[in-house]
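Researcher: We plan to redesign the surface later, but first we want a full-length starting point. Tokens attached.
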């Protein structure tokens, strides 16, 4: 068990370093959750829209929209209209 705790501690410290390097260490837990979901979706699908974030994150639609608005205001992400579905916005990183 001590080995597991030691490994977890190591990886948590590394994650903290990465978040500082990427300048996302000041984000709230909801903001981090949305950012992590966006990264996961963009890695798998090479694109990401708001509906996907709602479906994958487990957060409510209103929470995702509020969080995306905050991340946009912080210049972490921006939205562009989907060429395939004019009702949907694609999420991009700056």
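Model: Full-length starting sequence:
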């Amino acid at each position: 068990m001590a080995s597991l705790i030691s490994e977890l501690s190591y990886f948590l410290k590394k994650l903290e370093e990465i978040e500082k390097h990427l300048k996302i260490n000041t984000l709230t837990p909801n903001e981090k959750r949305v950012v992590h979901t966006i990264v996961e979706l963009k890695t798998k699908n090479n694109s990401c829209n708001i509906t996907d974030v709602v479906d994958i994150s487990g957060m409510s639609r209103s929470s995702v929209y509020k969080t995306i608005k905050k991340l946009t205001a912080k210049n972490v992400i921006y939205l562009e209209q989907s060429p395939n579905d004019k009702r949907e916005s694609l999420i991009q990183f700056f």
